[in-house]
Structures are given as structure tokens and as C-alpha cells.
């Protein structure tokens, strides 16, 4: 705790020092720029005055001033006064005004702008040079005044402070995960000293943190990078093409989860996990080198294969080292590490991309995934020893004849499993990935928001899963009605999208992401399914593979469907309608799936 407090205080002090230094540097640079521009304008006006043009006859001078303002966002206004200090011409961000001609409809302005803070103002005399008896005489005809915008400076300082706050949150999360990692390493060393190979489900958290920090460095800008490399593809609209990398990644991840689920019932978790990491790393390096949209799409599909293997294997680890009483806590530990890594990676990647561009982030991602492989090989080796698993009768049937395939179909079309897949897991995955991974980054980018702000909003979702979900998981584990929490997840998710009917833009996005984060914190779909008798008969590995496949199908379709929202007449109304549909689907699940208590009474 002391270490976290020191980090917080240090970061706050650094932020104040950084802001002060930036203000001094900003003023110095922009005063120099304003001096150059003002000197050029003064030279032009002085030339006209020397040619005999009266200062009150400088026709359309305000338009010339406006041209300078338009290319200089750091300037507030430029004005010209006569020798009596009466304003003649003014240009600012909104207007170009000629005060000399009374027939013009001159808007009322703040006449005190010529008396602004002298630190933000530059004045130069307009001089007419005349020859008098072989001598030059300089006559002051007026003044040109340039005001530097305080608001732009304050906005820049605010951005710096927001960046500092973001870094503080990332530092806090990173330090917490680092302390957890150190604690697990110390425990691992203690186990080695005691000649025991015991490993616990919480050991997966540091691994998933490092992996998803690396993997999600590009999460907030992948559609935007696709837009940079855009070429027409498959006759699709541009908005749909932008969604293809995410959809392709999720499609191949979904296909891979089925294979990984089948493998996890037969081999230990670490082989598919490590192979998946290696494939992810190769895919990230390929994304870095991609020359066009086709190569980027293929590289993300390759990355999806690795992602599916590793993510499924991590869940297999949790299932192997938990029981019915600790399963939700184990999955929560996994997802807490996942989301902490995703938050830190997404925000860090967004801020770095603002400065060095999108492509290098994929290279950094590939390197860090290699680090994840090394960590796993060294610190998780106690879990590499294959656990002795008692063969199930159904497993033997699956190996010898076609009864296993029949059992899979029986499992999928079970009333409760089918309702969960179609009305629970699928729409939740559809909405979360479609909105968070694709829709809102593109939506805010088109509204002019910076990449840093886009990355920061993603943090809201992750923070909910890190700090709210672990608290709720204890209630979920203790509750005998897991179905209730699935319904709550859907209702809050649907309400999230209806917020677009009342507000729009940045605020609507923030509200939706926050509510989606809260709804995901209630999710108990896997716990509900894993407690069913038919799931245990099929095998938890294969069952989890089917759940993940349904989830990936939703994640594939989500970005494509949300891409279609952009071509509707009103994006906000479309989002609200989608929210109502989502709520309706949740009610269908509530009426079709059986409650836990009823299933327990029936022995199902």
C-alpha cells in the first residue's frame, strides 16, 4: 500500500511539473510563431501604407487576417487599430469583420480583447514611411495586435493531466499485478523448497495479464489502422471492410476453441497455451509488416488462431484446478488478469500510437508475447505435469464410435444449453465486441476525438471487470440462482444501448461502456452451464469449447452488424432500437431456461 501511495504522489507531482514546463514551452514557441506571422502581416500593411493607401481604406484586410487564423489554431484573433485606437479589422475563429464600413452587419464583440494578458499578446506598430527633404520620416498609422488563445493552452494542459491520470491508473494496475506476480513467484519458490509441485488457480492471473497487455496494445485502433491500409475488398462497403480484421480474428479464434476444447480433455493445458502464444507473436509481427488491408486481415486471422488456443487453454487451467465452489472465483481471477492487462495494454497502446503511429505497436506486441512464453515456461512449469484424469464412459464412446457426436448434439439442443447459447452468450458477445472493439473507436474517431481519449474510454469497461466483478463473483458462487445473474447481465446491457436515444457522442459512449462493464460483471453463464449434469457428462473441456465457439460467433458477427449501423439514417436511433431488441432477447431467455433450483430438484 505504501508503494502504491508513493507512486500516486510521485505521479501527481510529476504531472504538475510537466504542466508548468509545458506552459512555458508552449508560450515560447507560439510567441515566436506569432511574431513571424505578425511581422509578415505588418510588412504587407506597411507596404500598402507607404504606397499611399489610407489605413481606413484597406479593403478586405479582415479576409487576409482570417486566412492566417485558419491555419493557426493556437491564435485567438488578429486585429488592426488606427492611431486613435479605434478597431478597423478583426478576424477570429468564427468571423472576419470590417468595422470601417457601417453598412455591414457587424456583430458585437468584446472590445477589451486588445487589453488581454500581455503574456498572451503581441503588438506591432504599423508605420508609414514618407520622404521629407531628403530624409525619411516614420509616421505611426496604427497597430496590429495578435492574441494567443488561452483556451487552446488550457485544453493542451488538460490533455496532459488526463494523460497523467491515465498513466497513474495504468501504473496502479500494473503495480498491483506486479505485486501479485511477485507474490506468486515467492509462493512458487517456497513450493519448490518443500519439494511439492502444487499449483493454484490464481497462478494463471499474472500470465493472462502479461498476455493480454501484449495482445490488446492495438485494441483501440485496429479498425482505424485498417482504414489507413484500406483497399476495396470483396465488393463490401468501406464500413464493413473496416470490421473485417476483428471479425476474422474472432472467427478463427472461435474455430480454434473447438479444437482446443477437445484437446484439453486429452492433454494438459500448457501445450495449446504455449503454441497459441507463439502463433500470436508471429501474427503480430506480420501485422507490423502488412503492406495493405489484405495482409492485415490475414495476419489478424493468424493471430486469432493463437488467441483461441491460448485463451481456451487458460480456461482449461482454471477448470482443472478448481471445483464447483471455487470455479467462479477461478474464472474471475483469470478475467481480472485479462482485463487488467487489456486496460493497461489498450490505453498504453493508444497513447504510444498517438506519438509513433499504429504499425510499430504491433512489433512491440509481438515482443511482449514472447516474454509471456518465457514467463510461462519458467514460472508455470509446476502445472505442466499432466493430471491423471479418470476416463469417462462418454469419452470412451467418443473415441470408439459415433455416440460422442450424438452426445454433443444432445448437449447443444438441451433446452437450457440452447437457450443459454442463443439467447445469452451469443447476444452478449455480439454487443460487447461489436460496440467496444469496433463501433465506438470508429464512431468517436469520426467525431474528432483523439486516439488517447478512445483508449481511455476502453479503460472504463476493464475497470468494472477488475474491481466490480470480483466482488460480485462471491455472491454468484454463493447463490443457488445463477440464472438470475444472466438475466441481470442482459437487462443492463440492453439499457446501455438505449442511452443513445437520450444523449449522443462522447457521453453516450462513456455511459454505454460503463453499463456494459457492469453487466459483464454479473455474468454467470459459464458457471450456470458447468453446473449442469449434461455438461459433466459431455466433458467440461468440450463444453467450454462449444460455449467459446458460440461466443466467437457473436464476436465475428458483432463488428459486421455494428458496421451496418453506420449506413442507417440515424445511428443513435438504431442503437436505441438494438438495446430494446437486446432486452427482449433477455426476457426470452428468462422464460425458456430453467432455474437452478428446478434443475437441482429434477437431478439435471
TrEMBL record:
Annotated localization: Cell membrane
Record-linked InterPro entries: MFS, MFS_dom, MFS_Efflux_Transporters, MFS_trans_sf
Record protein name field: Inner membrane transport protein (PmrA-like protein)
Keywords noted in UniProt: Cell membrane, Membrane, Transmembrane, Transmembrane helix
PROSITE patterns for the chain: MFS
Domain Major facilitator superfamily (MFS) profile as annotated: residue spans: 163-597
Transmembrane segments: 165-186, 207-226, 246-264, 271-289, 295-319, 331-352, 358-380, 417-443, 455-472, 484-503, 509-529, 541-567, 573-593
Any one Gene Ontology cellular component term annotated for this protein: plasma membrane
Keyword field contains Cell membrane: yes
Membrane topology term: Multi-pass membrane protein
SUPFAM superfamilies: MFS general substrate transporter (SSF103473)
Native organism: Candidatus Magnetoglobus multicellularis str. Araruama
Amino acid at each position: 500500500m505504501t508503494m502504491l501511495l508513493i507512486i500516486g504522489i510521485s505521479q501527481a507531482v510529476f504531472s504538475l511539473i510537466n504542466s508548468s514546463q509545458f506552459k512555458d514551452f508552449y508560450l515560447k514557441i507560439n510567441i515566436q510563431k506569432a511574431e513571424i506571422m505578425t511581422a509578415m502581416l505588418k510588412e504587407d500593411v506597411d507596404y500598402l501604407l507607404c504606397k499611399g493607401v489610407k489605413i481606413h481604406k484597406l479593403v478586405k484586410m479582415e479576409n487576409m487576417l482570417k486566412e492566417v487564423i485558419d491555419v493557426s489554431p493556437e491564435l485567438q484573433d488578429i486585429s488592426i487599430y488606427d492611431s486613435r485606437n479605434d478597431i478597423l479589422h478583426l478576424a477570429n475563429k468564427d468571423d472576419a469583420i470590417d468595422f470601417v464600413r457601417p453598412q455591414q452587419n457587424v456583430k458585437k464583440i468584446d472590445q477589451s480583447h486588445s487589453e488581454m494578458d500581455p503574456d498572451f499578446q503581441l503588438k506591432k506598430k504599423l508605420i508609414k514611411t514618407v520622404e521629407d527633404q531628403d530624409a525619411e520620416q516614420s509616421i505611426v498609422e496604427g497597430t496590429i495586435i495578435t492574441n494567443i488563445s488561452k483556451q487552446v493552452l488550457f485544453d493542451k494542459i488538460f490533455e496532459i493531466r488526463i494523460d497523467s491520470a491515465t498513466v497513474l491508473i495504468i501504473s496502479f494496475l500494473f503495480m498491483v499485478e506486479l505485486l501479485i506476480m511477485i507474490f506468486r513467484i515467492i509462493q512458487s519458490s517456497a513450493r519448490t523448497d518443500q519439494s511439492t509441485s502444487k499449483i493454484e488457480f490464481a497462478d494463471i492471473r499474472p500470465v493472462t495479464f502479461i498476455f493480454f497487455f501484449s495482445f490488446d496494445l492495438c485494441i483501440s485502433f485496429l479498425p482505424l489502422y485498417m482504414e489507413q491500409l484500406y483497399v476495396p475488398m470483396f465488393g463490401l462497403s468501406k464500413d464493413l471492410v473496416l470490421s473485417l480484421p476483428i471479425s476474422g480474428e474472432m472467427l478463427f479464434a472461435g474455430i480454434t476453441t473447438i479444437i482446443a476444447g477437445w484437446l484439453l480433455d486429452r492433454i494438459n493445458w500448457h501445450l495449446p497455451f504455449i503454441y497459441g502464444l507463439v502463433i500470436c507473436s508471429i501474427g503480430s509481427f506480420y501485422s507490423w509488416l502488412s503492406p495493405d488491408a489484405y495482409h492485415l486481415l490475414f495476419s489478424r486471422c493468424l493471430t486469432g488462431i493463437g488467441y483461441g488456443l491460448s485463451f481456451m487453454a487458460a480456461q482449461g487451467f482454471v477448470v482443472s484446478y478448481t471445483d464447483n465452489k471455487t470455479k467462479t472465483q477461478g474464472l474471475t481471477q483469470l478475467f481480472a488478469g485479462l482485463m487488467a492487462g487489456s486496460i493497461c495494454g489498450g490505453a498504453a497502446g493508444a497513447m504510444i500510437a498517438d506519438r509513433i503511429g499504429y504499425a510499430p505497436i504491433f512489433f512491440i506486441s509481438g515482443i511482449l508475447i514472447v516474454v509471456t512464453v518465457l514467463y510461462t515456461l519458467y514460472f508455470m512449469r509446476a502445472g505442466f505435469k499432466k493430471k491423471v484424469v479418470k476416463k469417462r464412459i462418454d469419452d470412451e464412446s467418443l473415441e470408439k464410435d459415433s455416440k460422442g457426436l450424438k452426445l454433443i448434439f444432445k448437449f447443444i439442443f438441451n433446452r437450457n444449453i440452447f437457450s443459454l447459447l442463443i439467447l445469452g452468450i451469443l447476444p452478449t458477445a455480439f454487443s460487447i465486441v461489436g460496440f467496444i472493439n469496433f463501433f465506438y473507436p470508429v464512431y468517436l474517431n469520426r467525431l474528432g476525438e483523439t486516439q488517447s481519449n478512445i483508449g481511455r474510454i476502453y479503460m472504463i469497461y476493464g475497470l468494472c471487470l477488475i474491481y466490480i466483478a470480483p466482488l460480485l463473483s462471491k455472491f454468484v458462487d454463493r447463490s443457488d440462482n445463477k440464472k438470475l445473474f444472466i438475466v441481470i447481465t442482459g437487462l443492463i446491457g440492453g439499457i446501455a444501448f438505449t442511452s443513445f436515444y437520450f444523449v449522443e457522442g462522447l457521453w453516450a459512449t462513456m455511459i454505454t461502456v460503463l453499463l456494459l462493464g457492469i453487466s459483464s460483471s454479473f455474468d454467470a453463464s459459464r458457471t450456470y452451464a458447468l453446473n449442469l449434469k449434461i455438461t459433466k457428462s459431455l466433458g467440461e473441456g468440450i463444453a467450454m469449447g462449444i460455449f467459446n465457439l458460440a461466443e466467437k460467433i457473436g464476436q465475428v458477427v458483432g463488428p459486421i452488424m455494428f458496421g451496418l449501423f453506420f449506413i442507417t439514417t440515424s445511428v443513435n436511433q438504431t442503437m436505441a432500437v438494438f438495446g430494446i431488441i437486446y432486452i427482449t432477447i433477455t426476457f426470452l431467455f428468462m422464460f425458456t431456461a430453467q432455474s437452478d433450483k428446478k434443475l437441482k430438484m429434477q437431478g439435471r
